[in-house]
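Structure tokens please, single chain.
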Amino acid sequence: MPSVDELVEAWCACDRRLAFLAADRAVIEATREPRALVVEQLREGMPHVDLFHACAVLGRLIAESGGSPSLASSLIDTAQQVLPELGGETARGARAALSEGFVAARAEIARSKAAERWEFPGCVVPLPDASVAIAAGYPEDDEDALAAWAARVASEIARAGYRRALLAGGEKARALLFDALELAGVKVRTTSPPAPLGRGR
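Here you go.
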């Protein structure tokens, strides 16, 4: 009977034959450990919940390592070529778990990149007289992350030598950034978005 390592190598070899992106070939090598866990779960006849958890971890690692959706979507098909224990119904569940892990990780990465755009100096426009305009558009769904962002931005603005700030943006972001800037010794003026212009008659 083939060892776990031999089965993982055979699985990776199937994926290497299909991979056409250099990034995917690197991801195939980076996923040997979670693949081994999937193989072990199948060979030992572990409960499906454990197998599906291992597949979700594998999907997350593919996304975090920069693997393509094509690689993620074909991984269970290639596993079936070398793992006879992976039958049709189990394969469907494994594919779903792997996809959920992949998609969840991709969404987290996208949110993180979107939030990074609101870091200093991307969220500011320098003005005359040691002043700065700040767009407080950081996502407001996580108050702890929002407070940490406000503290970072305020610290960077004070360190850069600005002493006055014009602040606009979301209500929570403005409030937290206002407090952080005041603590940093920066005089703040807030503004709300202008009212829409009326239609000409």
